[in-house]
Input
Amino acid sequence: MASIKDVAKLAGVGLGTASRALSGNGYVAPETRKKIEEAAKELDYTPNVLARNLLKNRSGIIGVLIPSLDHYFFSELAQRLESDLYKKGYKTMICCTRNQENGEQDYLDMLENNLVDGIITATHSFNDEAYIKSKRVIVSFDRDFKGEIPMVSSDHEAAGKMAAEHFIKSGCKKVLNIYGRDTVGGHISTGKAHQVLKKELKEKGVLVEEICTEMGISDTEYYEKIARSCLEAYPDADGVFGSDSVCVPFLFQAAEMGIDVLDKMKIITYDATAVTRTVYPKISGVGQKIDEISRTLTDTLIKKINGEKTEEKQVLDVFWQDGETCL
Amino acid sequence: MASIKDVAKLAGVGLGTASRALSGNGYVAPETRKKIEEAAKELDYTPNVLARNLLKNRSGIIGVLIPSLDHYFFSELAQRLESDLYKKGYKTMICCTRNQENGEQDYLDMLENNLVDGIITATHSFNDEAYIKSKRVIVSFDRDFKGEIPMVSSDHEAAGKMAAEHFIKSGCKKVLNIYGRDTVGGHISTGKAHQVLKKELKEKGVLVEEICTEMGISDTEYYEKIARSCLEAYPDADGVFGSDSVCVPFLFQAAEMGIDVLDKMKIITYDATAVTRTVYPKISGVGQKIDEISRTLTDTLIKKINGEKTEEKQVLDVFWQDGETCL
DNA sequence: CTGAAAGCGCTAACAA
DNA sequence: TTGTTAGCGCTTTCAG
Output
């Protein structure tokens, strides 16, 4: 591993000169520069970013904390984040906190450690204090740290309203409201959409049945069971509102049970990630603008890194995805 | 940011002693240790890994190069890799090379840069030389660097045979063999499975129609179009072999066109990732053992990091996924 | 057992 | 324009 010292020696110049020539900052005579570049090439020199990082006290790496990658929503979000961060000159360290014993704390330590220049967190599992204690650069997705940490989220309230509107427009009389039990209290998350949906529907005299599922399960069979038991328990339901993980199996379990879902009930999914478009019939629903979320998170993070003032809370629009399962 | 120097000063000890106490290497008197630890706590000291990395010339980070995260197979693989690497004490830097101008080279540079301790590459887009030139630690998934770089892959030949067997057992007479055009010549990849399938089927007198799709497209609509045109062009086909991205839309497009696929034709998917189990009817197919792939890649990489000898080529079994679309 | 000093590879300030 | 020097924060000899 040739160092810049070796290059300088071979080129017959001082250490500083070599550094300036190679890093491109500061004045170097064209001739000298050429000599240095040749020496560098000959020695097959590559700069050691570790040393540079130590000096600048930055690594150019951003930690992205998500529950898991093999989940439609998060894999899309991670994809966008990686891409956006790359464009801004940052590398992405991916940190999946689900399945990992002490993962979140461990990853959070990277900030104190200077291993990452900032963290984008999109998990809900950890206690707030550890985050807030950290004085470094953190931006949160969909999780409210009471103003201590800038947050970006989708307008879950609008999502609930939008869904309610479509159920009502479709003339639904009894809607199954299926959502994951919130593991952390007080955080704004998709739960809000379910609350609003309920309120809106009740006001219009639509019956709402609440079905609580366990959180954080990505097991297909679990959701299939949920779907089956719902279909059995509420044969007269004519509407379903749930996450993609719920609605996709719902659609297919109904088919398997010989129920003509399209005719019998309206399904509205929340998140409307790629699967809901891949399957047939396409599932109608409310979607989060993942690319906009990613861009906003990235921009906010970089502002914070640069010491600029950032907005405390940025709420992004949701959109309606046309499909076959609801008007 | 309190440094170890500050801690030493506050504790009234030498720099080295503080370091030994805090890092746990070397002898320190219990009393002294206590003093140092208290000082560290008081100053809220956290070690700067950047400095440690420079000294040790390692970062504890592994680069994982994949085409994209929002792809069923790769998101699952990335998930497993992150988890396996974490268990071994490494952090994962995720590097998506698709959509990124000069991404692969840029990420590859990280190795030379010392930013990562090793790279697991699962992309097919780049020229081999850049990889082979690099003398550092690389392990490849499903890509043959002619023995220069250890490779892990699935037994695509067995996959082809397995698929053929099932088509034959089901009495198929005309099978559509749908595969992406290989962008890079000579690399072993899923293409091998399609070759073998063709050979095996022909030997048994089964007709095989070859359908070539563009590579690297994750656009649903594109595959829907493919499915439609196949269904129209080959109304008498009774078998389909393709990737998940092909088979899922195929199933649903057929349904949309009012074709009773289950009755009319057998579908065998290759990769059999989670989607193929989520949808109904479940799609039969050949699967790659992603967790085993991940474990093998990780183990091999770590062996290389530790300077141990590694196997040049490790071929892993594929498995049959029972489903409704083929016996 | 402990302190001082050297140095990982690089950049930046200061002279020359 | 260039060379020298002083660190970034840490670990690790090497004396003591």
Notes: The mean pLDDT of chain B is 90.
